[in-house]
Amino acid sequence: MVEYTYLVLRLPRGTTRETARQVLTEHAEHGGWELDRLRVHPDGSRWIQLRRKIIRQVRTF
Question: What pTM was computed for the model?
Fold first, then answer.
């Protein structure tokens, strides 16, 4: 079974789409994160949940 670790970002209202895209691109390229959920609230703020796989090493004998 695949396990994930999660990261929640909150971007305030007034953040442009371009800025939000840059933030998500940086996390994806340098941290290995992928988009799990994105919510845009009526006031314009964004709630973003990112995830990445937990890789566990298995001991071999």
Answer: 0.82
| pLDDT of res. 24 | 94
> Could you write out the DSSP letters of every residue in the chain?
---EEEEEEEE-TT--HHHHHHHHHHHHHHH--EEEEEEE-TTS-EEEEEEEEPP------
Cα separation, 24 vs 11, in Å, equals: 11
Burial of 28 from C-beta contacts in 10 A (0-12 / 13-18 / 19+): middle
Measured CA angle at 21 (ends 15, 25), to 5 deg = 135
CA 38 to chain centre: 9
Tell me the pLDDT tens digit for each residue of 15-27. 999 999 999 999 9
